[in-house]
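Supplementary Note 2. Why include the ligand at all?

Several targets in our set were suspected to adopt different conformations when bound, so apo predictions alone were not considered sufficient. For every target with a known small-molecule partner we therefore ran a joint prediction. The input for 5-O-phosphono-beta-D-ribofuranosylamine is given below.
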Amino acid sequence: MADKKLRVGVLISGSGTNLQSIIDAAYAGEIDVEVAVVISNRQEARGLERAEKAHIPGVWIDRTAHKTFHSYNMAIRDALKEHKVDLVVMAGYMRLLGTEVLKEYPNRVINIHPALLPSFPGASGIQDAFDYGVKLTGVTVHFANEKFDDGPIIAQMPVRIAEDDAIEDLEAKIHAIEHRLYPEVLQMFAQGRVSIEGRIARIAPHPSETR
Ligand code: GRF
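The joint prediction is reproduced in token form.
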């Protein structure tokens, strides 16, 4: 285990099952990560309850309480800074992040998407892949930028769509993979193995692979 844990701030809008997988992996000591704060744009997000249960500070930042997108994003930035966050983790946060946050955390904001980008971006990636009839879809973790589902890809895992899969089966398979992949990627950051060269995210080998 590393001496110092990576402090992550998790941004959510909804149920927070990915947040839960990160909390569980951190609690089990599988990753050198501490969830420093959970920020939600929705007061009723189940993820805020999960944070409270895990004794993690939860902050509701209401877009409608801010006159401008700028001041809303400044509030997010301030909450992240207050909790001394190293890495910003979007986990089902259904809005774009403003430059106020992206500039404060250059190459330190990541997102998870339930399809193999650049295929099926947008809010319904699982359904769109299913309806299109692809045989293979999956999960992508990528750097976030000022566009939706667009930044350099850090990690992807495939999920096969079987002949008899209903949409619910596919959703379950995708979420199971998400809950494995996101903690794994956070551990890559905790180990300082992720960097960017232009459009390409580079992952340095695990320390045990370099001997
Ligand atoms: C996940 O499928 C994630 O890929 C997408 O939004 C969903 C969030 O689910 N961006 P949860 O809130 O983590 O349960």
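The chain has six helices and nine strands. The first strand starts at residue 6 and ends at 12. Comparable summaries for the other entries are listed in the accompanying table.
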